[in-house]
C-alpha cells in the first residue's frame, strides 16, 4: 500500500508546484498602461491616429462576450487598444450593435468639450471635441436593452490627444 501512495503523493506535489509556478508567472506579468510610459505621444502613429480637426473620429462602443470595448475607425483597429486624436478633432461615440446602450467615463478630468460622461446607444450617437492634450485612460460600459445583472460588460482603454 505504501508503494502506491508514494508515486501518487509525488504526482500531486509536482502538479501543485506547476500550478503555483503558472500562477506566479501570471502575477509577475505587469499590465502595461500607455499613459504610464515616459512618452506616450511617441506611440501614436498614422495607423492608430483617428480623424483630424477637419474629419471626425468614430468610436464604436459595444458589448463583447464578457466585456465592453471601444474601437476607433482606424485601419486594423482593435477594441480597447490605444488610439490617438489631435486637438479639435470631433469624436463620435456610437454603438453599431442594435438595442445597446453605453457609457464612457473619462474619470475626474475629461479632455473633451463637453466634459460630462458620454452616455449614448445604438439610436443615440454622442459627439465631443478633443480639447486638452495628454494621455487619458477611460472606461467603457455597454448593455443590451432591458439587461439584467450580468448582461452588461465593461472595459478600459487609453487615448492620447495630440497638440
Descriptive tags:
globular, five-stranded mixed β-sheet, 163 residues, 1 helix, alpha+beta, single chain
Question: Which percent bin holds the helix content?
Answer: 10-25%
Task: Tell me what portion of residues adopts beta-strand conformation.
Answer: 35-45%
Roughly how many Å is the radius of gyration? 22 Å
Unreliable stretches? 5-29
Strand order of the largest sheet: 2-1-4-8-6
**SS summary, helix count:** 1
Q: What's the mean pLDDT score? A: 83
Provide the structure class: alpha+beta
Name the helix and strand elements from N-terminus to C-terminus, one letter apiece: HEEEEEEEEEE
Distance between the termini: 75 Å
**Form type:** globular
How many strands, what sense, and barrel or not for the largest sheet? Answer: 5 strands, mixed
**What's the total count of β strands?**
10
Folded structure, characterized:
This protein is of the alpha+beta class and 163 residues long. 17% of the residues lie in helices and 37% in strands. The protein contains 1 helix and 10 strands. It has one helix at 2-28, and strands at 57-63, 68-72, 83-86, 90-94, 100-105, 112-113, 118-121, 126-130, 134-144, 152-162. A 5-stranded mixed sheet has the order 2-1-4-8-6, with no helix packed on it. Strands 3-10-9-5-7 form a 5-stranded mixed sheet, with no helix packed on it. The longest helix has 27 residues, at 2-28. The radius of gyration is 22 Å and the shape is globular. It starts with a helix and ends with a strand. 26% of the residues are buried. The model is unreliable at 5-29 (pLDDT under 50).
Amino acid at each position: 500500500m505504501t508503494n502506491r501512495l508514494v508515486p501518487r503523493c509525488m504526482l500531486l506535489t509536482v502538479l501543485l508546484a506547476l500550478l503555483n509556478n503558472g500562477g506566479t508567472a501570471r502575477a509577475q506579468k505587469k499590465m502595461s498602461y500607455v499613459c504610464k510610459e515616459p512618452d506616450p505621444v511617441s506611440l501614436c502613429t498614422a495607423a492608430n491616429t483617428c480623424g483630424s480637426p477637419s474629419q471626425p473620429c468614430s468610436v464604436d462602443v459595444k458589448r463583447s462576450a464578457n466585456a465592453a470595448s471601444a474601437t476607433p475607425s482606424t485601419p486594423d483597429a482593435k477594441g480597447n487598444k490605444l488610439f490617438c486624436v489631435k486637438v479639435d478633432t470631433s469624436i463620435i461615440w456610437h454603438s453599431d450593435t442594435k438595442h445597446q446602450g453605453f457609457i464612457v467615463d473619462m474619470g475626474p478630468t475629461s479632455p473633451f468639450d463637453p466634459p460630462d460622461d458620454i452616455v449614448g446607444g445604438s439610436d443615440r450617437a454622442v459627439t465631443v471635441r478633443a480639447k486638452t492634450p495628454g494621455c487619458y485612460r477611460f472606461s467603457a460600459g455597454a448593455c443590451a436593452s432591458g439587461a439584467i445583472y450580468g448582461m452588461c460588460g465593461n472595459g478600459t482603454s487609453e487615448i492620447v490627444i495630440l497638440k
